[in-house]
Amino acid sequence: xxTEATKARFAREVAKYPAEQKQSAVMACLAIVxxxxxxxxxxxxxxIAEYLGMPQIAVHEVTTFYNMYNQQAVGKYKLNVCTNLPxxxxxxxxxxxxxxxxxGISMGETTPDGMFTLQQCECLGACxxxxxxxxxxxxxxxxxxxxKLDQLVDNLRAAEAKQ
Length: 163
What we know:
By secondary structure, the chain is an alpha+beta fold. The protein contains 7 helices and 4 strands; from the N terminus they run ααααβααβββα.
């Protein structure tokens, strides 16, 4: 559900574009909904489409094209491992498998404690640093061999334990 407060945030984003191009704010509106609700539901897509005056399928196409929009709830730490060809050639697939084993989940799943969601993603643009991954759509991690993967997960768990 899109609240009036959310619509006010949408309006600030839409104001950045010419009136006839308000659909250009679709990514910003999706980010706002995700920030407020944790993910972008079909109902939220419909609300954004209505607000921006565009077909719901067009909003859904944006939601599904980009990894940064979650269509379902994810763990506190979303781990996106690049599985594009350059990373695969430099053990990106092995990094994904290692995390699956360490976390006890398969790609696309969330740990039972809700702490980690493991996903694969397309090119992150750091092929020379492969294998690479992105944590919570913000922190790029490079040269992610097994030791660095273990250290990352262990450090995140330890940080949570202190809270």
